[in-house]
Each structure stands twice: as C-alpha cells, then as structure tokens.
Design a protein that fits this description.
The protein is mostly beta strands and 828 residues long. The chain has six domains: 1-30 and 68-266, Neuraminidase (6 Propeller), CATH 2.120.10.10; 273-281 and 301-324 and 332-455, no CATH class; 458-562, Immunoglobulin-like (Sandwich); 570-643, no CATH class; 645-729, no CATH class; 733-826, Macroglobulin (MG2) domain (Immunoglobulin-like, Sandwich), CATH 2.60.40. The protein contains one helix and 68 strands. Strands 45, 48, 50, 51, 53, 55, 57, 58 and 60 form a nine-stranded mixed β-sheet that branches. It is elongated and about 140 Å long. The N and C termini lie far apart (91 Å). The model is unreliable at 1-25 and 41-48 (pLDDT under 50).
C-alpha cells in the first residue's frame, strides 16, 4: 500500500510540474509521446485494403495502410497464425491466417498512443494504450478472439509516458498474470499487474530510478534452486542523462509483488546527433531504449536475460550508431561484453538504430530487427534489417534485409512535428517457433506507412500472371521458391479457384503429387484442367505457400482465361483522355475479359479540353477508325494515341487581334498580332504599345514603342500561354477656332518646363492627314499624340508625361505639306 500511495503522490507532483513547464511545448525531451495535436486525426488516414508488396526476387512486405508509427506486435501461443499489431494512436490490425488483415477498433477512453500488446498462454490478447490529455495512465482491453471483439477497457497503470506490457505465458505459479510498467514522473516508474486475466489491475510497486522513457518488463523462468516457469519478472528502468543513460535492472520472484535491484549500468551513450535535448538520426528523434527479453524455452540457454540497445561508435555526438546485445546469466546483476549485431563491414559509416527484440518460447532464438543505412552512402535513407542468435547471444547469423524498398529517414510530408521530428520511437518483432513477424513504420511513400514481414522467409513466384485455356484442355503453372532468407523449414503449397464456373469445372492438381519443398531453390508444378463446357470467363487460381505451422505464408493469384481473352484498352494520355468500350466510357487503361468470338466496339473520344490544353485523337494502335469493331479470339492490347495542343489566349481591350484563342500543336511555330498600331474604337483613337506575356514561352515586349505588332514564335508552344495587347488612348484634339489660318504653324508648348502635363497648339490651312509625335533626346519615338485627318483650323492637344522620366523631349508635327519640330523640357 505504501508503494501505491507513493506512486500516486509522485504522479500528482510531476503532472503539476509538466502541465506548467511544458504546456506550450509538446516536444518535452523527457517524454516520448505522440504530439497531442495529431492524436485526433490518425484513424481517418487508414487505407482499408491490405497490399502485398513483392520485390523482384519474390519476397513480400505486407502493407497495412497509413497509421501514425510506433507499432507493437504479438502472436498467440494457441494459434501461430494469429498475429495482432497496433499503431498510434489506436489503430489495430489483426490476422487469423497470417496473411489477410482486418481492423476492429476498440472503444478506449481518450486514447493517447504508445500501443503495446501481449498474449497469455490461453490465447487471450491484451492491448494497452495510454489515456488522457495530459496523459494520466493506461487502459487495457482484452480480446479472446484476436481482436474480432473486445471486452470493456480496464484502467491498468498510472503514469505520464511510455508504457510496456508482458504476460506470463507459462503454466507456473503466476500463469497468465499480466504485467505493465509506465513512467510515472519525477524520477519514478509504476508497476501494475493483473492476476485475474485482465479483469482488474493493481499497482504493486514503484521504482525510483525512472527519469527517461524506456521502462520495460519481461518474464523469465527461475532456474536456480529448482525450475519455476515464469518465476521471475524483470524490469529495467532508464534514467540519468540522455547521452549516458543508466539502465537499472530489477527482478521479482513473487509475481511482481516486490522487486530486488540487481544492478545499474551505463552501457549506451550518444545515439546519432544530440538535438534539442533528444538523440536523433537524420532529424528523426530516437532513443537508446533498453530492450529486454528472457529465454523461456527449455533449450540450453533457458533463463538467460538479454539486453539490446543502440549507441554510437565511437561514443561521440554526431557519430553513427550500432546495435549491441548483452546477456546476463544471473538476472541482471552482471552482463557479458557487448556484441555488435549488425555485420556491415564498415559499421562506423552507417546508422543502425530502432532495434526491437523477442526471444522465442519454443526454440530460444533471440530475434532482433532494426533500421539500417548500410546500402545508402549518404545515410539519408534506410531499410529494415534483422538477425537472430541461436546460441544465447554469443553470435548472430548473417544480417538479412527485410524491407522491399528504401525510405527517406527525415519525412517532412509524414505529419510528425518537432525538431528532431516525431516519426515513432519504437516498433516490434515476435516469433512462433518457425519464423518471426515484425511490424514497423517506414516512409517510402512520404507517409507513415504500416508494414509487416516474416523472417526467416522464402520468396515465391509464378512464371506468368495469366494463362489462356480452352475447353477440355490443360496447362501447367510453375510455382517456384527462388531464394530464402535463412529459411530451412518446409514449404507446402495449396491451390483453389476463387469462383467456380457455372457450367463445367476446373480441376487443380500438383504434378506427381509434389506439393511441398524441403530444399531451395526449387519449384512445384500445378496442373489446371478444364472439364466439360466451362463457362467463358476469367478465374483466379489462388496459390498459397506456407511453413509447417502455417507461417511464413505467401499467396499468388494466377488468372486463367477459359474460352476467353483479355482486351486491354487505354490511351497514351492515361487518366486524361476518354474512350468507350461497348458504349461505356473510361479514362484509365482497363482490362476486359470477353468470350472468344465476341465483337467489341471501341471508340476514342476527341477532342478533350483540360483548361488551356487540348488532346486530339490521332490513331488507334491497330490503325482502326476512331470508332471501330474488333473480333476477339486472343489477347489484344489497344491504345488510342492523342496529340497535345496548347491554347494561345489573346487578351485585348479593343479587339483588333489575330492568331489568338486557338489551340496549336505542341512545339509548332505560331504567329499572333494586332492589325495596326492605331485603332479607332468607340470614336476614340488608341495606339498599340506592346505585349505582356504569361506562361513559359510567352512573349513580352522589350519596350513600349509598339512596333512589334506581329510576333512569330519559331520554337513553338510548349504550354498554354496568355498574350495581352497593351493600348494607349491617343490624346484628343480640341479645335479652338473656326478661323482658317493663312499658314501652317507649330507653337511652343506651355508651360515649359512642365510637370507632367503641357499643351501643344498648331495651325492647319486645309483638310489633310496630320500626325503629332513625341521623341526622346536619342530620337526614339515614345508617343504618337495624333494620327488622323483634320480640317483647316486652329487645334490644341494636351500631352501627359506622367509615365516618363525628367529630361529633354521633342515634338514633331507632320502633314503632306508641312513639318516642324520643337523642344520641350519635362522637369519632375
């Protein structure tokens, strides 16, 4: 009771302190939580469809969708094909066959993340998730059928950060006890247990050496003084400095009621680069968590306690990290020398971090997985690697690459925040006596992708993905295991038809009865035979390969076209241009299955206008007409080819343009322009002053002279462009007297100097064309004030030079019978 009261008191203190100190900053370096602002949005991101991602050899990753990192995974001892994994914040995934996954989300009070999972020996699944904002502890929810249904959640343990869970999977005195730990704050960690299979939890102990996230719990046998299955509960706490953490090991022999401190060690140091109070790798936050596991098998290393962690070599800030394993034969009181698990030849050049471990209950193998940059010289991208030890942690087998694609480490598009960025702090691996199954989050698609894979594992391929078959005929499908990843068990294949035909039947059999492989590479032959008059159509042959306990398991589907053929129809502008097949419209390449002898009508729809781009049909790949009918007797692939055209959009306030508002073939020369420099519009005279272009390859006039009335672009159009004609209204002419002058005359402007408006007067003795122009001191025409036909009389024109710089200008009056020039001064 004293320990419980202490825990509650210390939790209350640390809650108050953290709520004051870090209320404005979620990235407290002493906490490893999902950023609170992201927690409400996670579930909506999950994709419903599980995908198998196969590399070019035939190895699989299973893509579960998008969650929010930090997965944990468990496997049932009652059924080795029952796996359960959960990602932040409350995103569970279950499989009953090791292959197909479903998600049934339990209703948890205010889920806050850090999901961890465990099975007891009876097959009960326990799923723990932090709760509250701010976090106050964890709830545990139980399922007896691998997440198909859930019991009512039970509050399990108090704390503020980073929890862990373990079950006693033995038949010993503490059989099926459930243990959980959590950072409580202010240097303390909480321990709670359930002795009634998750119906309730009691907090039984408080540890005073927990300041950093990373408190872990596991179960092992007591092997001294008589063998007691599940006789020891181990806890490791994490405290001290983030760059020199102290791992303190505790052991309980009474099912977690009391604990004895076994030893405290500083094994890890710097991890990657220390930024903002956190270790990080390429701006991904991380931490040298002390991962522990105990050997519960009845092998030669029964009872051995393992520790795995990551730390830099050399132990300095900014160096690169390795994965280390130590073992203890005395419950954590003393430890072996560190063994480097990663076997890259130049390990100081590469990062290895994010380890997770599991010790197999059946054969005692210690499995470890981690992130690894060994195949990326720049170390900015990583892959998942794994290995195992079958000799008690003395050595590890050759490392195996597990992920089927590299991924950038620093994922700016994933949605995590902070510097270094939150991208998950842990993941997990579990095993079932034949193989292990791991869950992780990687960023190969610029998002928090959720993935699983087997190890050891076998690759699986078929020669072709589809075959044609006629009535009362047969064919052979070769199913091959071309390579393995340290897999040495058998592989057995089964096959079935996804949907049997209405008439006739499809018979499946393995040639000479060989449906299994025991050495690799090797293959089996599957015979598919059509019997009777089989209904024409496409039938999927589902071929499954699995290990001796049903795992690892992989599946391939081969399409059999019986009395039918595939007609694949598309365009060279996929998703843009449209086509019809038998009157139904599509815009992506689509495979159709038609009975042999069918007549199929295809039609290309043209033109297709998308904004300023137009696609125009040119031809079908079979040289058929825009609309034509084909007869199907074999597989056919048809493509409608479209050329691309771009629109020249012409803008002009007074019209008078040509060459615009039409589509031009890509890269084809084009010409546009205005019909004259001066235009009479609505009884006003306008002067063309040049072009303003928008879009790559458009034209903009170098000045405002307006002499570029016609423009040719010989290099062609490469995207939609806009050309805008600029016009200036010519100054209006005022007749100031009806008296007919005796002679031509151009008067001096007034005022002069001027700013910015001045008046120019002139006399015309008879009706004729008159032009009044303004030039700069270099003789360049900058403005035409008048260009029109005037009768005899006295006239006045105003010149506005608001857009011109100060200086000397000249104005010139021109008629068929008279020319004169005068100077004026603009002084601003």
């Amino acid at each position: 009771m004293k320990n419980i009261l202490q825990s509650i008191a210390f939790f209350a203190i640390i809650f108050l302190l953290t709520s004051i100190t870090f209320s404005q900053d979620w990235d407290n370096p002493f906490l490893d939580q999902v950023p609170p602002k992201y927690r409400p949005f996670i579930r909506t991101l999950i994709f419903p469809q599980v995908q198998t991602l196969t590399d070019n050899v035939g190895f699989d990753n299973f893509y579960l969708g998008i969650d929010f990192a930090e997965p944990h995974i468990s496997v049932s001892l009652q059924n080795p094909k029952w796996f359960f994994t959960a990602y932040n914040t409350n995103n569970p995934h279950s499989t009953l066959d090791g292959l197909n996954w479903f998600a049934n989300v339990p209703s948890l009070p205010s889920p806050a993340g850090d999901p961890v999972t465990a099975y007891d020996s009876l097959g009960n699944l326990y799923y723990e998730n932090m709760t509250g904002n701010p976090i106050i502890g964890c709830y545990v929810v139980k399922s007896t059928n691998n997440g198909q249904t859930w019991n009512t959640p039970v509050f399990a343990v108090s704390g503020i950060d980073k929890n862990w869970i373990a079950c006693d999977q033995t038949g010993g005195p503490f059989a099926n006890y459930v243990y959980t730990v959590m950072t409580a704050g202010s240097g303390y960690g909480s321990f709670a247990r359930s002795t009634n299979q998750g119906q309730s939890f009691q907090q039984t102990y408080t540890f005073n050496t927990q300041t950093l996230p990373g408190m872990m719990v596991c179960v092992g046998p007591k092997t001294v003084g008589g063998d007691v299955p599940g006789g020891y509960v181990y806890v490791v706490t994490n405290s001290g400095s983030s760059v020199a953490p102290t791992y303190t090991f505790y052991r309980s022999s009474d099912g977690g009621q009391t604990f004895q401190m076994m030893g405290a060690y500083v094994f890890a140091g710097y991890l990657g680069t220390y930024v903002g109070g956190r270790p990080s790798v390429q701006n991904m936050r991380t931490r040298p968590y002390p991962f522990i596991a105990a050997d519960n098998s009845y092998g030669p290393y029964r009872g051995r306690l393992y520790l795995v962690y990551a730390t830099n070599v050399p132990n300095v800030d900014g160096a690169k990290s390795d994965i280390f394993c130590r073992y203890s034969t005395d419950g954590g009181a003393s430890w072996s020398s560190p063994l480097t698990i990663n076997d890259d030849p130049n390990s100081t050049n590469n990062y290895q971090w994010m380890p997770s471990i599991w010790c197999d209950k059946f054969d005692g193998k210690l499995y470890v997985k981690w992130f690894d940059t060994r195949n990326v010289p720049t170390s900015d991208s990583a892959e998942v690697y794994a290995s195992y030890s079958s000799n008690g942690g003395v050595s590890f087998v050759t490392n195996q690459k597990i992920s089927t694609a590299k991924f950038k480490i620093d994922c700016s598009t994933c949605g995590g925040g902070g510097t270094p960025r939150y991208q998950g702090d842990y993941d997990a691996i579990v095993s079932n006596g034949v193989t292990s199954k791991m869950s992780w989050s990687d960023f190969r698609n610029g998002a928090f992708g959720s993935y699983t894979a087997y190890f050891p594992d076998f690759a699986m391929i078929t020669a072709y993905q589809s075959f044609n078959l006629n009535n009362n005929d047969s064919l052979i499908i070769r199913v091959k295991v071309p390579a393995v990843k340290l897999y040495s068990k058998s592989v057995r294949f089964t096959a079935q038809v996804d949907t049997m035909p209405v008439s006739g039947t499809l018979q499946l059999s393995f040639v000479q009865g060989k449906d299994s492989l025991i050495s690799f590479p090797d293959s089996v032959l599957l015979k598919v035979k059509s019997i009777g008059n089989v209904t024409p159509g496409s039938y999927g042959i589902i071929i499954t390969g699995s290990g001796p306990n049903g795992t690892p398991v992989h599946q391939r589907i081969v399409d059999i076209l019986v009395n039918s053929s595939i007609v694949s129809v598309g365009t060279n502008r996929n998703t843009i241009c449209d086509f019809k097949v038998n009157g139904v419209q599509y815009n992506t390449r689509t495979d159709f299955v038609f009975p042999n002898g069918s007549n199929v009508t295809v039609q290309a729809l043209s033109p297709k206008v998308v904004g300023g781009t137009q696609y125009v049909f040119q031809n079908w790949s079979d040289n058929g007409d825009t609309t034509h009918t084909i007869t199907v007797n074999n597989n056919i692939s048809l493509t409608a080819f479209y050329k691309i055209q771009f629109k020249l959009i012409m803008n002009s306030s007074i019209g008078n343009t040509f060459g615009g508002n039409v589509f031009y073939d890509s890269a084809t020369a084009f010409t546009f322009g205005v019909t004259g420099r001066f235009v009479n519009y609505n009884n006003q005279t306008y002067q063309f002053r040049g072009w303003t272009g928008s879009g790559v390859g458009s034209y903009t006039s170098p000045d405002s002279s307006g002499f570029d009335t016609v423009v040719t672009r010989p290099n062609g159009i490469i995207n939609p462009i806009v050309q805008t004609a600029r016009w200036l209204q010519v100054t209006s002419v005022q007749n100031i007297s009806t008296e007919i002058p005796k002679e031509y005359k151009l008067y001096q402007n007034f005022p002069n100097p001027f700013n910015p408006v001045t008046t120019i007067e002139f006399d015309i003795v008879k009706t004729q064309d008159v032009k009044l122009q303004v030039y700069d001191i270099l003789g360049r025409e900058i403005r035409t004030l008048i260009e029109t036909n005037l009768g005899a009389g006295k006239y006045r024109v105003q010149f506005n030079a608001v857009d011109l710089p100060s200086g000397i200008y000249f104005y010139k009056l021109t008629t068929p019978d008279y020319t004169n020039i005068k100077r004026m001064i603009l002084m601003k």
